[in-house]
Amino acid sequence: MLLVPFMPPVLHLPTPLLILPLLFLSGMTLAPLLAAVMGRIGDLAPPDRRSEAFGWMATALGTGGALASPAVGAMIDGFGIAGGVAGAALVLLAASGLSLFVHPPAEAPQSMDEDADGTGGKDGRGPAGGAAIRAPAEPGRPTDGPAPTGPTVPTTSPHPPQGH
User: Fold this and answer.
1) Cα(49)–Cα(79) distance, rounded to whole angstroms?
2) Which of 11, 44, 126, 158 could form a disulfide with 132 if both were Cys (CB 3.0 to 4.6 A apart)?
3) Helices in 47-146 by DSSP H: which ranges?
């Protein structure tokens, strides 16, 4: 919004270079804004759904850019450059205001059948008498249970041998 008074048709500067310092300062806010958005999404999304959350965020950014370009162009055609800048700033302020209503998700409730040691099921062997179902470990932390033994790749080639 600080840029609007310095844009045509509000003010006609003799050279666009006079607004360059203000454009530079306003552009410097973009990187911290994106960092804050990424951090907030990382905090809100559950660890096992973060990739999906960032994918949807990338989709929203692309869609927003595709919709904003013709809208701002129409505002510039109708109200001059100052109108386009003011319209973009108002949409950004509205989005910022809406973000105040986003709250972190509540913790997932524990199952009624889960016993005190967290193994699940009334007999401690899981829901169907098999292994207990557990939430995935936090990234970078060791998983429960023994490490896999033996080869982790097939011992034979998946492709049949070709005759010469």
Assistant:
1) 43
2) 126
3) 50-99
Backbone angles phi, psi at 102, to 5 degrees: -85, 120
Q: What is the pLDDT of residues 91-119, one digit of tens each?
A: 989 988 998 898 877 765 554 444 445 55
Contacts with 139 (C-beta within 8 Å, 6 or more apart), sequence order: 47
Q: What angle do the packed helices 30-44 and 50-99 form, to 10 degrees?
A: 120
Model confidence, pTM = 0.56
Q: What Cα–Cα distance (Å) separates residue 103 from each residue in 40, 43, 57, 109? A: 10, 11, 17, 17
Q: Encode pLDDT of 19-70 as tens digits.
A: 899 889 888 988 998 899 899 999 999 989 999 999 999 999 999 999 999 9
Nearest to 134 by CA among 123, 119, 148: 119
Q: Where are the domains of the chain?
A: 1-8+52-98
Element spanning 144, H or E:
none
